[in-house]
Amino acid sequence: MAWFDLHRHLEGSHSPRALLKVAGEFGITHALFGRSEAELARELVLAEPSDDATKFYACIVKARAAYVSIPAVKALALEAFREAADDSDGFEMRLSLFSMTRTLLENQKRVWRDVKPVEFAEAFARPLLLAVIEARDQAQREKNKPMLLRLGLSRTFESDSHYVALGEMVKEHAASLVGLDVLGIVTGVDTEPLPEGLLRVLESMRRSLPDLTIHAGEFAGHASVDRTLALQPRGVGHGVHSVQSNATLERLAKEGVTLEVCPTSNHLLIPSALAALKRDHTQGATPLVALQKASVHCVLGSDDPTPMGTSFTREREVARESGVDLAKLEADIMRRWRELSR
Ligand SMILES: [Zn+2]
Question: Which CATH code for domain 5-341?
Answer without folding.
Answer: 3.20.20.140
